[in-house]
Amino acid sequence: MSLRPTATAALFAVTMSAATLTPAHADDVVLGALTIGEPWARASAGMAQAGAAFMTITNAGTTDRLVSAAADVSDVVELHTHIKDGDIMRMRKIDAIEVPGDAVTHLQPGGLHIMFIGLDEPLQDGATFPLSLTFETAGTVEVTVTVQGVAAMGPRTEHGKTH
Ligand SMILES: [Cu+2]
């Protein structure tokens, strides 16, 4: 049995997934081979000093890296991931978020995210703010983050507690 048809089919499947998993929305932002979909943040709970933004990044080209993010909502903006430390998921600052080619990278609660530390004021449900994203290859683009409810996407991560 030849491996070739299988490999070809797998490659096709991966390519198709990048094109079909994330339907285009009116507010998607395209930057070269990248499509940034539905950037959102969770509203601050009480006096939380930190917040996070999430989105999908669909890459129809070759592997790229998100190397920095900037916004005016906090003292510091960092790229974060979660690592498992025993039974506890902890956040960790990383230098870049890898965005593989022909794939969709999800920034989501409990995983990769953009972290806002030292919020100027609480993120209010329904508010929007500009977020600048800089990719190693594709360059810089500004997206609009929409703040959703405190419980959006489930209560899985509690940023205030893990920092
Ligand atoms: Cu974080």
How would you describe the overall organization of this protein?
This protein is 13% helix and 50% strand. By secondary structure, the chain is mostly beta strands. It has a single domain, classed as Immunoglobulin-like (Sandwich), CATH 2.60.40. A hairpin with a 3-residue loop joins strand 10 and strand 11. The relative contact order is 0.25. The C terminus is likely disordered. Bound molecules: copper (II) ion. The site of copper (II) ion has 6 residues, from strand 9.
Give me the secondary-structure topology.
Layout: H1 4-20, E1 29-31, E2 34-42, E3 50-59, E4 64-70, E5 74-85, E6 88-94, E7 97-99, E8 103-107, E9 113-119, E10 128-135, E11 139-148, H2 159-162
Parallel strand pairs: 2-11
Antiparallel strand pairs: 1-2, 2-3, 3-8, 3-9, 4-7, 4-10, 5-6, 5-9, 10-11
The chain binds copper (II) ion.
Structural class: mainly beta
List of distinct ligands in this structure = copper (II) ion
The CATH superfamily name is PCu(A)C copper chaperone
Unreliable runs = 5-22, 154-163
Q: What count of structural domains?
A: 1
Largest sheet, in brief, is:
11 strands, mixed
Strand content: over 45%
pLDDT averaged over residues: 83
User: Total number of β-strand segments?
Assistant: 11
The CATH architecture classification is Sandwich
Give Rg in angstroms.
Answer: 17 Å
Principal-axes shape call: globular
If helices are DSSP runs of H or I spanning 4 or more residues, what is the number of helices? 2
Helix content: 10-25%
